[in-house]
What we know:
Layout: E1 2-7, H1 17-24, E2 29-35, H2 37-42, H3 47-66, E3 71-75, H4 82-92, E4 95-101, H5 106-121, E5 125-129, H6 151-163, H7 178-187, H8 189-192, H9 213-227, H10 231-234, H11 247-252, H12 257-267, H13 279-299, H14 322-330, H15 336-348, H16 353-366, H17 371-381, H18 387-397, H19 413-420, H20 425-430, H21 463-480
Parallel strand pairs: 1-2, 1-4, 2-3, 4-5
Helix pairs in contact: 4-5, 6-13, 9-12, 13-18, 15-16, 17-18
Residues 235, 243-247, 250-251, 286-287, 289-290, 293, 353, 356-357, 360, 378, 382, 384-386, 389-390, 392-394, 397 line the site of flavin-adenine dinucleotide.
Amino acid sequence: NHALLWLRADLRVTDNTALNYAIASGLPVIAVYIVTPMQWYQHHISGRQIDLIERRLHVVKQQLNDINIPLLVVECHDFSTVPATIATLCQQHQISAVYCNRQHPWNEKQRDFAVEQALIAQDRQWHCVDDYCVLPPGSVLTQQQKMYKVFTPYRNAWLKQFLSYNYQPVTNSDKVTFSQHCLNLLEGKSKVNGDIQTFNYSKQDSLLWPVDESAIQQRLQMFCETKAEYYQQQRDFPAIDGTSCLSPYLAIGALSARQCLAALMEALPQCVEINKQNGAFVWLSEVIWREFYNHLLDSYGRLSKHQPFQLYTHHVRWLENSDHLHAWQQGKTGFPIVDAAMRQLATTGWMHNRLRMISASFLVKDMLCDWRIGEQWFMQQLIDGELASNNGGWQWAASTGTDAQPYFRVFNPTTQSERFDPNGEFIRQWVPELQYVPDKYIHSPSLWSGFGDVDYPLPIVDHKQMRLLAIDSYKQAKTCY
Ligand code: FAD
Protein backbone atom coordinates (compact mmCIF):
# COMPACT_ATOMS: atom_id res chain seq x y z
CA ASN A 1 0.00 0.00 0.00
CA HIS A 2 1.06 3.56 -0.75
CA ALA A 3 0.02 7.09 0.18
CA LEU A 4 -0.55 9.70 -2.51
CA LEU A 5 0.43 13.32 -1.91
CA TRP A 6 -1.55 15.54 -4.28
CA LEU A 7 0.26 18.86 -4.70
CA ARG A 8 -1.74 21.94 -5.71
CA ALA A 9 -1.06 25.51 -4.44
CA ASP A 10 1.61 24.20 -2.06
CA LEU A 11 4.72 23.72 -4.17
CA ARG A 12 7.21 23.19 -1.40
CA VAL A 13 8.72 20.39 0.59
CA THR A 14 9.38 22.20 3.86
CA ASP A 15 6.44 23.12 6.07
CA ASN A 16 3.95 21.34 3.86
CA THR A 17 1.23 20.00 6.16
CA ALA A 18 -0.17 17.38 3.79
CA LEU A 19 3.31 16.08 3.02
CA ASN A 20 4.06 15.81 6.72
CA TYR A 21 0.84 13.85 7.29
CA ALA A 22 1.54 11.59 4.35
CA ILE A 23 5.02 10.79 5.65
CA ALA A 24 3.68 10.28 9.17
CA SER A 25 1.23 7.66 7.83
CA GLY A 26 4.23 5.35 7.57
CA LEU A 27 3.22 4.37 4.04
CA PRO A 28 5.61 4.93 1.14
CA VAL A 29 4.56 8.20 -0.48
CA ILE A 30 4.11 8.97 -4.18
CA ALA A 31 3.39 12.59 -5.17
CA VAL A 32 1.31 13.87 -8.06
CA TYR A 33 0.72 17.26 -9.64
CA ILE A 34 -2.23 17.60 -12.03
CA VAL A 35 -1.94 20.04 -14.91
CA THR A 36 -5.40 21.42 -15.87
CA PRO A 37 -4.92 23.81 -18.81
CA MET A 38 -8.58 24.42 -19.64
CA GLN A 39 -9.42 25.11 -15.99
CA TRP A 40 -6.52 27.53 -15.72
CA TYR A 41 -7.76 29.26 -18.82
CA GLN A 42 -11.29 29.49 -17.41
CA HIS A 43 -9.87 30.89 -14.16
CA HIS A 44 -7.82 33.40 -16.20
CA ILE A 45 -4.54 32.23 -14.65
CA SER A 46 -1.71 34.21 -16.20
CA GLY A 47 0.88 32.62 -18.45
CA ARG A 48 3.52 34.00 -16.09
CA GLN A 49 2.13 32.21 -13.08
CA ILE A 50 1.94 28.95 -15.01
CA ASP A 51 5.56 29.40 -16.08
CA LEU A 52 6.51 29.99 -12.44
CA ILE A 53 4.62 26.85 -11.41
CA GLU A 54 6.34 24.77 -14.09
CA ARG A 55 9.80 26.04 -13.13
CA ARG A 56 9.10 25.53 -9.45
CA LEU A 57 7.84 22.01 -10.04
CA HIS A 58 11.26 21.00 -11.36
CA VAL A 59 12.78 22.14 -8.05
CA VAL A 60 10.12 20.38 -6.00
CA LYS A 61 10.61 17.19 -7.99
CA GLN A 62 14.30 17.24 -7.13
CA GLN A 63 13.61 18.00 -3.48
CA LEU A 64 11.08 15.17 -3.28
CA ASN A 65 13.53 12.91 -5.03
CA ASP A 66 16.07 13.68 -2.32
CA ILE A 67 13.68 12.19 0.23
CA ASN A 68 12.83 9.30 -2.09
CA ILE A 69 9.39 10.51 -3.06
CA PRO A 70 8.73 10.21 -6.80
CA LEU A 71 6.64 12.93 -8.45
CA LEU A 72 4.19 12.18 -11.24
CA VAL A 73 2.88 15.00 -13.40
CA VAL A 74 -0.34 14.17 -15.23
CA GLU A 75 -2.65 16.29 -17.37
CA CYS A 76 -6.43 16.62 -17.14
CA HIS A 77 -8.38 18.92 -19.40
CA ASP A 78 -10.18 20.57 -16.47
CA PHE A 79 -11.39 19.77 -12.96
CA SER A 80 -14.23 17.54 -14.19
CA THR A 81 -11.87 14.67 -15.09
CA VAL A 82 -9.72 14.94 -11.96
CA PRO A 83 -11.75 12.49 -9.79
CA ALA A 84 -11.46 9.71 -12.39
CA THR A 85 -7.76 10.43 -12.87
CA ILE A 86 -7.04 10.21 -9.15
CA ALA A 87 -9.13 7.05 -8.87
CA THR A 88 -7.14 5.46 -11.70
CA LEU A 89 -3.82 6.49 -10.14
CA CYS A 90 -4.93 4.92 -6.89
CA GLN A 91 -5.63 1.64 -8.65
CA GLN A 92 -2.39 1.70 -10.60
CA HIS A 93 -0.19 2.40 -7.59
CA GLN A 94 -2.09 0.56 -4.84
CA ILE A 95 -2.83 3.78 -3.00
CA SER A 96 -4.88 3.47 0.15
CA ALA A 97 -4.84 7.12 1.28
CA VAL A 98 -4.69 10.48 -0.50
CA TYR A 99 -3.26 13.57 1.25
CA CYS A 100 -3.63 17.17 0.13
CA ASN A 101 -3.84 20.73 1.46
CA ARG A 102 -7.26 22.39 1.36
CA GLN A 103 -8.00 25.09 -1.22
CA HIS A 104 -10.64 27.73 -0.59
CA PRO A 105 -12.12 28.86 -3.93
CA TRP A 106 -15.52 27.36 -4.79
CA ASN A 107 -14.54 25.31 -7.87
CA GLU A 108 -11.58 23.78 -6.05
CA LYS A 109 -13.85 22.82 -3.16
CA GLN A 110 -16.37 21.22 -5.55
CA ARG A 111 -13.57 19.31 -7.28
CA ASP A 112 -12.27 18.03 -3.95
CA PHE A 113 -15.74 16.93 -2.89
CA ALA A 114 -16.05 14.91 -6.10
CA VAL A 115 -12.61 13.34 -5.56
CA GLU A 116 -13.53 12.45 -1.98
CA GLN A 117 -16.72 10.72 -3.18
CA ALA A 118 -14.78 8.76 -5.81
CA LEU A 119 -12.27 7.62 -3.18
CA ILE A 120 -14.92 6.66 -0.65
CA ALA A 121 -16.59 4.54 -3.35
CA GLN A 122 -13.27 2.68 -3.73
CA ASP A 123 -12.82 2.36 0.02
CA ARG A 124 -9.76 4.63 0.13
CA GLN A 125 -8.96 7.35 2.64
CA TRP A 126 -9.07 11.07 1.90
CA HIS A 127 -7.15 13.51 4.09
CA CYS A 128 -7.59 17.15 3.10
CA VAL A 129 -5.88 19.37 5.69
CA ASP A 130 -5.55 23.09 6.42
CA ASP A 131 -2.30 24.68 5.32
CA TYR A 132 -2.76 27.72 3.06
CA CYS A 133 -3.48 30.15 5.91
CA VAL A 134 -1.67 30.41 9.22
CA LEU A 135 -5.00 30.06 11.01
CA PRO A 136 -7.56 27.87 9.24
CA PRO A 137 -10.73 29.43 7.79
CA GLY A 138 -13.55 29.08 10.29
CA SER A 139 -11.22 29.39 13.27
CA VAL A 140 -11.31 33.18 13.70
CA LEU A 141 -14.93 34.00 14.47
CA THR A 142 -17.01 36.58 16.33
CA GLN A 143 -18.66 35.74 19.64
CA GLN A 144 -21.73 34.76 17.61
CA GLN A 145 -19.54 32.24 15.74
CA LYS A 146 -19.77 34.26 12.52
CA MET A 147 -17.06 35.38 10.13
CA TYR A 148 -15.85 38.93 10.81
CA LYS A 149 -16.83 41.45 8.16
CA VAL A 150 -14.52 44.23 9.33
CA PHE A 151 -10.77 43.86 9.23
CA THR A 152 -9.59 45.51 12.49
CA PRO A 153 -11.63 43.36 14.93
CA TYR A 154 -10.75 40.34 12.77
CA ARG A 155 -7.06 41.20 13.08
CA ASN A 156 -7.35 41.59 16.85
CA ALA A 157 -9.04 38.21 17.21
CA TRP A 158 -6.53 36.69 14.78
CA LEU A 159 -3.57 38.01 16.78
CA LYS A 160 -5.00 36.78 20.05
CA GLN A 161 -5.24 33.29 18.63
CA PHE A 162 -1.90 33.49 16.86
CA LEU A 163 -0.04 34.47 20.01
CA SER A 164 -1.35 31.45 21.86
CA TYR A 165 -0.55 29.12 18.96
CA ASN A 166 2.63 27.39 17.95
CA TYR A 167 3.29 28.97 14.57
CA GLN A 168 6.64 27.32 13.94
CA PRO A 169 6.91 25.85 10.47
CA VAL A 170 7.67 22.15 10.32
CA THR A 171 10.51 20.66 8.36
CA ASN A 172 10.46 17.06 7.32
CA SER A 173 13.91 16.21 6.05
CA ASP A 174 14.42 14.06 9.13
CA LYS A 175 11.23 12.15 8.55
CA VAL A 176 12.19 9.93 5.65
CA THR A 177 10.86 6.61 6.70
CA PHE A 178 12.09 3.12 6.19
CA SER A 179 9.09 2.41 3.97
CA GLN A 180 10.12 5.31 1.73
CA HIS A 181 13.47 3.65 1.11
CA CYS A 182 11.62 0.42 0.31
CA LEU A 183 9.60 2.28 -2.32
CA ASN A 184 12.75 3.02 -4.22
CA LEU A 185 13.99 -0.50 -3.97
CA LEU A 186 10.71 -2.00 -5.08
CA GLU A 187 9.70 0.34 -7.86
CA GLY A 188 12.93 1.78 -9.16
CA LYS A 189 12.96 5.58 -9.37
CA SER A 190 12.69 5.68 -13.13
CA LYS A 191 9.35 3.90 -13.26
CA VAL A 192 7.35 6.75 -11.78
CA ASN A 193 9.91 9.47 -12.15
CA GLY A 194 9.89 10.59 -15.79
CA ASP A 195 10.68 14.13 -16.92
CA ILE A 196 8.15 16.91 -16.45
CA GLN A 197 6.59 17.66 -19.83
CA THR A 198 6.27 21.31 -20.83
CA PHE A 199 2.82 22.49 -19.81
CA ASN A 200 0.33 22.87 -22.59
CA TYR A 201 -0.48 26.55 -21.88
CA SER A 202 0.35 29.90 -23.38
CA LYS A 203 3.15 30.94 -21.01
CA GLN A 204 5.16 34.10 -20.43
CA ASP A 205 8.53 34.05 -18.78
CA SER A 206 8.69 34.40 -15.02
CA LEU A 207 12.47 34.63 -14.76
CA LEU A 208 12.43 37.72 -12.55
CA TRP A 209 11.46 35.31 -9.78
CA PRO A 210 14.09 32.66 -9.03
CA VAL A 211 12.53 29.38 -7.94
CA ASP A 212 15.28 27.57 -6.09
CA GLU A 213 14.78 27.12 -2.39
CA SER A 214 17.78 29.09 -1.22
CA ALA A 215 16.90 32.15 -3.32
CA ILE A 216 13.33 32.23 -1.96
CA GLN A 217 14.40 31.74 1.64
CA GLN A 218 17.12 34.37 1.25
CA ARG A 219 14.65 36.90 -0.09
CA LEU A 220 12.42 36.30 2.92
CA GLN A 221 15.35 36.45 5.34
CA MET A 222 16.79 39.58 3.77
CA PHE A 223 13.43 41.35 3.87
CA CYS A 224 12.80 40.48 7.53
CA GLU A 225 16.32 41.40 8.61
CA THR A 226 16.84 44.60 6.67
CA LYS A 227 13.54 45.98 5.40
CA ALA A 228 10.60 44.94 7.57
CA GLU A 229 11.54 47.58 10.15
CA TYR A 230 11.11 50.36 7.57
CA TYR A 231 8.09 48.84 5.85
CA GLN A 232 5.60 51.31 7.26
CA GLN A 233 7.50 54.34 5.91
CA GLN A 234 8.45 52.82 2.58
CA ARG A 235 5.67 50.51 1.47
CA ASP A 236 3.59 53.12 -0.34
CA PHE A 237 6.30 54.43 -2.66
CA PRO A 238 6.59 52.38 -5.84
CA ALA A 239 10.01 53.82 -6.72
CA ILE A 240 11.38 52.34 -3.47
CA ASP A 241 12.05 48.63 -3.15
CA GLY A 242 10.32 48.60 0.23
CA THR A 243 7.99 45.59 0.08
CA SER A 244 8.94 41.93 0.14
CA CYS A 245 7.91 40.91 -3.42
CA LEU A 246 7.12 37.49 -1.99
CA SER A 247 3.52 37.36 -3.25
CA PRO A 248 4.27 35.15 -6.31
CA TYR A 249 5.75 32.51 -3.99
CA LEU A 250 2.89 32.71 -1.52
CA ALA A 251 0.36 32.39 -4.35
CA ILE A 252 1.79 29.08 -5.63
CA GLY A 253 2.79 27.88 -2.19
CA ALA A 254 6.55 27.93 -2.81
CA LEU A 255 6.55 29.69 0.55
CA SER A 256 4.04 29.36 3.39
CA ALA A 257 2.60 32.24 5.39
CA ARG A 258 3.83 30.42 8.50
CA GLN A 259 7.39 30.54 7.18
CA CYS A 260 7.01 34.29 6.59
CA LEU A 261 5.82 34.95 10.10
CA ALA A 262 8.41 32.67 11.67
CA ALA A 263 11.17 34.57 9.85
CA LEU A 264 9.66 37.88 10.94
CA MET A 265 9.43 36.80 14.58
CA GLU A 266 12.98 35.58 14.51
CA ALA A 267 14.32 38.83 13.06
CA LEU A 268 12.08 41.18 15.08
CA PRO A 269 10.63 39.17 17.95
CA GLN A 270 8.97 42.12 19.66
CA CYS A 271 7.05 43.43 16.69
CA VAL A 272 3.68 42.13 17.92
CA GLU A 273 3.96 43.20 21.51
CA ILE A 274 5.57 46.63 21.80
CA ASN A 275 4.24 49.22 19.46
CA LYS A 276 1.62 48.34 16.93
CA GLN A 277 2.80 51.10 14.65
CA ASN A 278 6.19 49.57 13.93
CA GLY A 279 7.05 48.55 10.38
CA ALA A 280 7.15 44.86 11.11
CA PHE A 281 3.70 44.94 12.66
CA VAL A 282 2.33 46.67 9.58
CA TRP A 283 3.84 43.91 7.42
CA LEU A 284 2.33 41.28 9.69
CA SER A 285 -1.01 43.06 9.19
CA GLU A 286 -0.68 42.67 5.43
CA VAL A 287 -0.20 38.95 5.84
CA ILE A 288 -3.33 39.03 8.01
CA TRP A 289 -5.20 40.77 5.13
CA ARG A 290 -4.32 37.69 3.06
CA GLU A 291 -5.84 35.52 5.78
CA PHE A 292 -8.92 37.78 6.01
CA TYR A 293 -9.62 37.55 2.28
CA ASN A 294 -9.06 33.81 2.22
CA HIS A 295 -11.33 33.29 5.20
CA LEU A 296 -14.01 35.44 3.54
CA LEU A 297 -13.67 33.47 0.29
CA ASP A 298 -14.11 30.26 2.22
CA SER A 299 -17.20 31.57 4.05
CA TYR A 300 -18.95 33.28 1.15
CA GLY A 301 -19.27 31.09 -1.94
CA ARG A 302 -20.55 34.04 -3.94
CA LEU A 303 -17.12 35.71 -3.87
CA SER A 304 -15.86 32.92 -6.16
CA LYS A 305 -18.83 33.45 -8.48
CA HIS A 306 -18.34 37.02 -9.70
CA GLN A 307 -20.78 38.37 -7.12
CA PRO A 308 -20.21 41.51 -5.07
CA PHE A 309 -20.12 41.27 -1.31
CA GLN A 310 -22.42 44.34 -1.03
CA LEU A 311 -25.44 43.15 -2.96
CA TYR A 312 -26.81 46.63 -3.70
CA THR A 313 -23.86 47.26 -6.00
CA HIS A 314 -25.41 44.78 -8.47
CA HIS A 315 -27.48 47.79 -9.50
CA VAL A 316 -24.62 50.14 -10.35
CA ARG A 317 -24.93 51.01 -14.04
CA TRP A 318 -21.50 50.53 -15.51
CA LEU A 319 -20.36 52.22 -18.70
CA GLU A 320 -19.02 50.16 -21.58
CA ASN A 321 -16.30 51.99 -23.46
CA SER A 322 -13.92 49.65 -25.22
CA ASP A 323 -11.54 52.47 -26.22
CA HIS A 324 -11.13 53.51 -22.61
CA LEU A 325 -10.71 49.91 -21.48
CA HIS A 326 -8.06 49.34 -24.13
CA ALA A 327 -6.24 52.53 -23.08
CA TRP A 328 -6.23 51.35 -19.45
CA GLN A 329 -4.96 47.89 -20.37
CA GLN A 330 -2.20 49.31 -22.58
CA GLY A 331 -1.11 52.03 -20.16
CA LYS A 332 -2.27 54.89 -22.38
CA THR A 333 -4.86 56.71 -20.29
CA GLY A 334 -2.98 60.01 -20.16
CA PHE A 335 -2.69 59.65 -16.36
CA PRO A 336 1.03 58.92 -15.92
CA ILE A 337 0.84 57.02 -12.63
CA VAL A 338 -1.90 54.72 -13.94
CA ASP A 339 -0.01 54.16 -17.19
CA ALA A 340 3.28 53.43 -15.41
CA ALA A 341 1.47 50.92 -13.20
CA MET A 342 -0.26 49.16 -16.08
CA ARG A 343 2.99 48.93 -18.04
CA GLN A 344 4.83 47.51 -15.03
CA LEU A 345 2.10 44.88 -14.83
CA ALA A 346 2.28 44.00 -18.52
CA THR A 347 6.07 43.81 -18.53
CA THR A 348 6.77 42.01 -15.26
CA GLY A 349 3.48 40.41 -14.14
CA TRP A 350 3.75 42.24 -10.81
CA MET A 351 2.43 45.59 -9.63
CA HIS A 352 3.11 47.53 -6.45
CA ASN A 353 0.18 47.50 -3.97
CA ARG A 354 -0.34 51.28 -3.96
CA LEU A 355 -0.53 51.17 -7.74
CA ARG A 356 -2.98 48.27 -7.69
CA MET A 357 -5.24 50.47 -5.58
CA ILE A 358 -4.80 53.50 -7.84
CA SER A 359 -5.25 51.69 -11.15
CA ALA A 360 -8.21 49.64 -9.88
CA SER A 361 -9.87 52.75 -8.53
CA PHE A 362 -9.24 54.50 -11.85
CA LEU A 363 -10.94 51.74 -13.84
CA VAL A 364 -13.97 51.63 -11.58
CA LYS A 365 -14.49 55.23 -10.48
CA ASP A 366 -12.92 57.26 -13.32
CA MET A 367 -14.05 55.00 -16.15
CA LEU A 368 -17.14 53.57 -14.39
CA CYS A 369 -16.15 50.19 -15.79
CA ASP A 370 -17.43 47.04 -14.07
CA TRP A 371 -14.78 45.97 -11.51
CA ARG A 372 -15.03 42.34 -12.68
CA ILE A 373 -13.46 43.31 -16.01
CA GLY A 374 -10.47 44.75 -14.17
CA GLU A 375 -10.32 41.78 -11.81
CA GLN A 376 -10.12 39.43 -14.79
CA TRP A 377 -7.45 41.52 -16.54
CA PHE A 378 -5.31 41.55 -13.41
CA MET A 379 -5.69 37.79 -13.03
CA GLN A 380 -4.64 37.28 -16.65
CA GLN A 381 -1.51 39.38 -16.08
CA LEU A 382 -0.45 38.86 -12.47
CA ILE A 383 2.28 36.42 -11.57
CA ASP A 384 0.87 36.42 -8.01
CA GLY A 385 -2.79 36.15 -9.10
CA GLU A 386 -4.76 34.67 -6.23
CA LEU A 387 -8.55 34.64 -6.28
CA ALA A 388 -9.04 35.68 -2.63
CA SER A 389 -6.64 38.65 -2.60
CA ASN A 390 -7.37 39.80 -6.13
CA ASN A 391 -11.11 39.68 -5.59
CA GLY A 392 -10.69 41.27 -2.17
CA GLY A 393 -8.51 44.05 -3.59
CA TRP A 394 -10.89 44.77 -6.46
CA GLN A 395 -13.96 44.73 -4.25
CA TRP A 396 -12.15 47.05 -1.84
CA ALA A 397 -11.33 49.53 -4.62
CA ALA A 398 -14.79 49.24 -6.19
CA SER A 399 -16.55 49.80 -2.84
CA THR A 400 -18.48 46.56 -3.42
CA GLY A 401 -16.64 44.56 -0.76
CA THR A 402 -16.92 44.17 2.96
CA ASP A 403 -14.87 46.78 4.81
CA ALA A 404 -14.17 48.43 1.45
CA GLN A 405 -13.29 51.99 0.49
CA PRO A 406 -16.61 53.94 0.95
CA TYR A 407 -18.10 54.71 -2.49
CA PHE A 408 -17.95 58.47 -1.94
CA ARG A 409 -14.20 58.44 -1.24
CA VAL A 410 -12.73 58.46 -4.70
CA PHE A 411 -8.96 58.44 -5.24
CA ASN A 412 -7.71 61.39 -7.26
CA PRO A 413 -5.07 59.78 -9.51
CA THR A 414 -3.10 63.02 -9.80
CA THR A 415 -2.85 63.73 -6.09
CA GLN A 416 -2.08 60.05 -5.42
CA SER A 417 0.74 60.40 -7.94
CA GLU A 418 2.04 63.59 -6.32
CA ARG A 419 2.03 61.94 -2.90
CA PHE A 420 3.50 58.57 -3.72
CA ASP A 421 5.82 59.29 -6.64
CA PRO A 422 6.71 62.91 -5.83
CA ASN A 423 9.56 63.31 -8.32
CA GLY A 424 8.03 61.06 -10.93
CA GLU A 425 10.87 58.57 -10.61
CA PHE A 426 8.62 55.56 -11.03
CA ILE A 427 6.65 57.24 -13.81
CA ARG A 428 9.80 57.99 -15.82
CA GLN A 429 10.99 54.41 -15.42
CA TRP A 430 7.87 52.96 -17.04
CA VAL A 431 6.70 55.79 -19.29
CA PRO A 432 9.92 56.82 -21.02
CA GLU A 433 8.03 59.26 -23.29
CA LEU A 434 7.79 61.49 -20.22
CA GLN A 435 11.50 61.37 -19.49
CA TYR A 436 12.08 65.06 -20.18
CA VAL A 437 8.86 66.50 -18.80
CA PRO A 438 9.79 68.85 -15.91
CA ASP A 439 9.04 67.56 -12.40
CA LYS A 440 6.37 70.20 -11.97
CA TYR A 441 4.29 68.71 -14.79
CA ILE A 442 5.17 65.04 -14.51
CA HIS A 443 1.82 64.18 -12.91
CA SER A 444 -0.23 66.19 -15.44
CA PRO A 445 2.01 66.49 -18.51
CA SER A 446 -0.74 67.89 -20.75
CA LEU A 447 -0.50 71.16 -18.76
CA TRP A 448 3.15 71.62 -19.81
CA SER A 449 3.81 74.07 -22.65
CA GLY A 450 6.12 71.54 -24.35
CA PHE A 451 3.48 68.76 -24.31
CA GLY A 452 2.88 69.11 -28.04
CA ASP A 453 6.24 67.48 -28.73
CA VAL A 454 5.66 64.55 -26.41
CA ASP A 455 4.17 61.37 -27.85
CA TYR A 456 1.75 60.81 -24.99
CA PRO A 457 -2.08 60.86 -24.91
CA LEU A 458 -4.29 63.53 -23.39
CA PRO A 459 -6.22 62.34 -20.31
CA ILE A 460 -9.03 60.06 -21.53
CA VAL A 461 -11.45 61.31 -18.85
CA ASP A 462 -12.09 64.34 -16.69
CA HIS A 463 -11.53 63.18 -13.12
CA LYS A 464 -13.84 65.73 -11.50
CA GLN A 465 -16.77 64.87 -13.75
CA MET A 466 -16.29 61.12 -13.50
CA ARG A 467 -15.98 61.27 -9.74
CA LEU A 468 -19.40 62.91 -9.48
CA LEU A 469 -20.91 60.49 -11.97
CA ALA A 470 -19.51 57.51 -10.05
CA ILE A 471 -20.81 58.75 -6.70
CA ASP A 472 -24.20 59.37 -8.26
CA SER A 473 -24.30 55.89 -9.83
CA TYR A 474 -23.63 54.23 -6.47
CA LYS A 475 -26.24 56.44 -4.81
CA GLN A 476 -28.81 55.46 -7.40
CA ALA A 477 -27.93 51.79 -7.02
CA LYS A 478 -28.63 52.14 -3.28
CA THR A 479 -32.07 53.57 -3.92
CA CYS A 480 -32.94 50.73 -6.36
CA TYR A 481 -32.03 48.11 -3.77
P1 FAD B 1 4.18 42.87 0.91
O1 FAD B 1 3.78 44.28 1.08
O2 FAD B 1 5.57 42.50 1.19
O3 FAD B 1 3.19 41.99 1.82
C1 FAD B 1 3.52 40.65 2.21
C2 FAD B 1 2.45 39.67 1.77
O4 FAD B 1 1.21 39.99 2.40
C3 FAD B 1 2.18 39.72 0.28
O5 FAD B 1 3.10 38.96 -0.44
C4 FAD B 1 0.76 39.17 0.23
O6 FAD B 1 0.73 37.76 0.29
C5 FAD B 1 0.13 39.71 1.50
N1 FAD B 1 -0.56 40.97 1.22
C6 FAD B 1 -0.03 42.21 1.19
N2 FAD B 1 -1.00 43.13 0.96
C7 FAD B 1 -2.15 42.44 0.82
C8 FAD B 1 -3.50 42.82 0.56
N3 FAD B 1 -3.87 44.09 0.41
N4 FAD B 1 -4.42 41.86 0.45
C9 FAD B 1 -4.09 40.56 0.61
N5 FAD B 1 -2.84 40.14 0.87
C10 FAD B 1 -1.88 41.06 0.97
N6 FAD B 1 -2.22 40.04 -3.75
C11 FAD B 1 -1.96 38.80 -4.21
O7 FAD B 1 -1.19 38.06 -3.58
N7 FAD B 1 -2.56 38.34 -5.34
C12 FAD B 1 -3.41 39.10 -6.08
O8 FAD B 1 -3.94 38.63 -7.09
C13 FAD B 1 -3.66 40.43 -5.64
N8 FAD B 1 -4.46 41.25 -6.36
C14 FAD B 1 -4.71 42.53 -5.90
C15 FAD B 1 -5.58 43.36 -6.62
C16 FAD B 1 -5.87 44.65 -6.16
C17 FAD B 1 -6.81 45.52 -6.94
C18 FAD B 1 -5.28 45.11 -4.97
C19 FAD B 1 -5.57 46.49 -4.46
C20 FAD B 1 -4.42 44.30 -4.25
C21 FAD B 1 -4.13 43.00 -4.69
N9 FAD B 1 -3.25 42.14 -3.98
C22 FAD B 1 -3.03 40.87 -4.43
C23 FAD B 1 -2.68 42.55 -2.68
C24 FAD B 1 -1.30 43.23 -2.74
O9 FAD B 1 -1.31 44.24 -3.69
C25 FAD B 1 -0.17 42.26 -3.05
O10 FAD B 1 -0.25 41.13 -2.20
C26 FAD B 1 1.19 42.90 -2.83
O11 FAD B 1 1.32 44.05 -3.63
C27 FAD B 1 2.29 41.91 -3.14
O12 FAD B 1 3.55 42.50 -3.00
P2 FAD B 1 4.55 42.06 -1.85
O13 FAD B 1 4.73 40.59 -1.87
O14 FAD B 1 5.76 42.90 -1.99
O15 FAD B 1 3.73 42.45 -0.57
